[in-house]
Design brief:
This protein is mainly α. It contains 18 helices and 2 strands. β1 and β2 form a beta hairpin.
Length: about 450
């Protein structure tokens, strides 16, 4: 009997502990202001899962898979057309086989189409409509990739058409050259290591070393994509960590597909010569899922502090939001009073322990009220940064001015006859607020007792 009760108590305590841990990891962690790598990892995983599901990355991956199928032949045709100029068409083919060992059948089919595509250029068909279709499919694919990454980062404004044409054209011309160079570097490293280490016993070591270089290049490729594709500033550290994980997942996916080739015979019995097609679609879908998941992870690791107190912020009272807005305004006024340079939202949030989302909202509201101006400042690394500074002289900014402009900012008086139907409500509310604001007009924000931290 005692053993049964002991086991029951142990199970009950274990269940309670699991529930507490789940509650903390799913919700409570966002109210934890401590900064340690364990808490940051929990926040990153939490935000990554939420962002992946909220932004429906499965549908994004499916759309990119479809556009990739359309762009495969034009992309390879452009790559081979440039490779012919270097005399490296065969080298590019072998390099593609090594990069995508799980898709040899799909590449064979694609190379057949590419040969016909390029051969038609001798008859003049490559000019005009052919070039337009080639560029459209490739630029459309790159534009869709940028849109997916901007969706992850919550960026509403993408690149302009002019920047898309210049940036995407540069990518389409540079990538084949990089592929050719990477092939030459791989061959050079292999031959150099074999000559430096002539012992046959070192041959496996050389092979693994060259393979590891390929993995590192994959990490850098994903990291570069996470940094350069979104139309926003992405830190290299976050992009590289996400690139390492995505690149490693891609290598594992390649290994799984290559190891699973023995099961392809089952598909051959059903699809015949088209057996490679469902496998190619599945592989592309998984590759894009890995790529987008890495982008979500990069976004989450860089943005976790923007979601601190997210549960409380969702239910914040107007009174508390007003106090935070006035506090942000006070920081900018005191900095001008002491002759310090303008400050950006991120530094305000970090130095004063405020959630970045609330600071950003307060700054945007104050700019809309014409109480703050955005100016360009430079940090130590010379990167241009947008900071904020008071738009008026500090001896004119009273608490009443801030409250009055905050009260009148936004749409109002748009309901017909509301003031007539509820005249008593309007007069009473306006009267009470007028009295309070009149008293607040006597208080200059610069007279508040507030000490700026040392920089």
């Amino acid at each position: 009997m005692n053993d049964v009760s002991t086991k029951s108590g142990l199970i009950s305590r274990l269940t309670g502990w699991i529930k507490r841990q789940w509650a903390y990891c799913s919700e409570g962690v966002w109210s934890d202001t401590r900064r340690s790598w364990r808490i940051n990892v929990i926040k990153t995983v939490n935000l990554s899962v939420r962002s992946f599901l909220d932004r429906d990355m499965q549908s994004q991956a499916a759309a990119l898979t479809f556009k990739t199928i359309l762009a495969i032949v034009p992309a390879l045709a452009l790559m081979f057309a440039i490779g012919k100029g270097f005399g490296m068409q065969t080298g590019i083919q072998s390099q593609l086989y090594s990069y995508f060992p799980a898709q040899t059948q799909a590449l064979d089919k694609a190379f057949t189409f590419v040969d016909s595509y390029i051969a038609s250029s001798n008859e003049g068909m490559f000019v005009g409509i052919g070039i337009v279709f080639l560029l459209y499919t490739l630029i459309s694919l790159l534009g869709s990739v940028e849109d997916s990454f901007n969706l992850i980062w919550g960026i509403k404004q993408g690149r302009t058409i002019g920047r898309k044409i210049t940036d995407y054209t540069a990518i389409l011309l540079i990538l084949p050259v990089l592929l050719i160079c990477s092939s030459g570097i791989t061959v050079f490293m292999s031959s150099m290591l074999q000559s430096a280490l002539p012992y046959k016993i070192m041959t496996p070591v050389i092979k693994y070393a060259v393979d590891f270089v390929g993995v590192v290049l994959g990490w850098l490729f994903f990291a570069g994509a996470y940094m350069l594709v979104p139309n926003t500033h992405v830190k290299f550290r976050n992009a590289f960590i996400a690139g390492m994980l995505a690149g490693t997942a891609y290598v594992v996916l390649q290994w799984l597909f290559v190891s699973g080739q023995i099961y392809v015979t089952r598909y051959n019995a059903i699809y015949g010569s088209f057996a490679f097609l469902p496998l190619l679609l599945l592989w592309l879908q998984l590759v894009w899922l890995i790529t987008l998941a890495g982008g979500v992870l990069c976004y989450a690791s860089q943005s976790i502090f923007e979601f601190s107190f997210s549960n409380e912020i969702a239910k914040i009272s107007p009174d508390y939001r007003t106090k935070i807005l006035v506090g942000v305004m006070l920081v900018t006024i005191k900095r001008r009073e002491e002759g310090r340079r303008p400050i950006d939202e991120r530094l305000i949030a970090v130095r004063y322990g405020l959630p970045i989302s609330l600071v950003t909202k307060a700054v945007n509201d104050l700019v809309e009220m014409n109480l703050l101006n955005r100016v360009v400042i430079n940090e130590g690394n010379g990167r241009p940064v947008s900071g904020v500074t008071p738009a008026l002289d500090t001896d004119r900014i009273t608490l009443g001015l801030v409250l009055r402009r905050m009260r009148r900012t936004g749409t109002h008086d748009f309901i017909p006859d509301f003031d007539n139907r509820f005249s008593s409500v309007v007069e009473t509310v306006d009267g009470c607020e007028h009295t309070a604001i009149a008293e607040a007009d006597k208080i200059l924000l610069r007279d508040f007792r507030f000490t700026l931290p040392a920089e």
